[in-house]
Structures are given as structure tokens and as C-alpha cells.
Amino acid sequence: MQQNIAKEIQNKTINFLITKGEKRKAIKILKESLKIVNKGLKEENNLSYILTKAVLNATPDVQVKTKRIGATIYQIPKPINQNKRLNHGILNLIEASRNRSEKTMVLRLSSEITDAFNNKGEAVKKKEAVHKLAEASKAFAHFSF
Prior knowledge:
The protein is mostly helical. It has a single domain, classed as Ribosomal Protein S7 (Orthogonal Bundle), CATH 1.10.455. The chain is built from six helices and two strands, in the order H-H-H-E-E-H-H-H. It has helices at residues 2-17, 23-40, 47-57, 82-98, 105-117, 121-136, and strands at 62-69, 72-79. The protein has a two-stranded antiparallel ribbon with strand order 1-2. The chain is elongated, with a radius of gyration of 17 Å. The two termini are 32 Å apart.
């Protein structure tokens, strides 16, 4: 089961990394960045374990949907299913790495994976912001879709 999730995360990450239909380039970027991350860590880890832990640390548990009731717009927290959670986590990780200032995408992605692995970085901050927003609007959770 764990290995299936790790493989699914790896495949989804590659597919989200693809730009202009260059899948081989995306695979190369991911593999090189994971090797850099593994060298930077103190202990030797499995590459799929590193990516899985980084994505799960950047994955939100809830999402906030807006709903208009009368003239007022409420933000309603809702739980997310497993598939969408993984998509949100991977997208958070890739968007944060694209916004970094390192020179190449390999370095940007490796830095962001390292930060997410250690529960730091922009992807984890985005997850925490969603959780804070959901916590603040918890009073409106009784409105359902």
C-alpha cells in the first residue's frame, strides 16, 4: 500500500512538472533534485520516501469553499478526499519551487523538497494558511453544499 502511494505521488509529480510536453525532461529534473536532497540529508533515505514525506507535509487536510447565502458570502471548510489532497500537496510543492530564486529548476525543486521534508518552506506555509482560514471560518461549517 505504501509503495503504491509513493509510486502514485512520483507519477503525479512528474506529470505536474511537465511543460511543453517534455516528460523526459520532467523525469530528469525530479530524479536529479531527489539525488541532491538525499546528499544534503544527514542520513541515507530512499528517494521515494523523501518525496512522499515532503508531499504529505505540504498536503492540506481541508479546503475552503465559498458559498453565497442571501447577500452574504461565507467561506465554508470542507474535508478533501485522498486523491485531491495529494494533488493539492504536489501543486503546492511545484508552485513554491517555481517561485524560488535559484538558477535552475533542479535546484529550486530540491530546495523546496528539502524544506517541505523538514516542515518548512513556502508549500508548508500555504498549507498552514489554508488550515488557519478553515479554523477561522469553522463557525460556518454547518452550511453544507
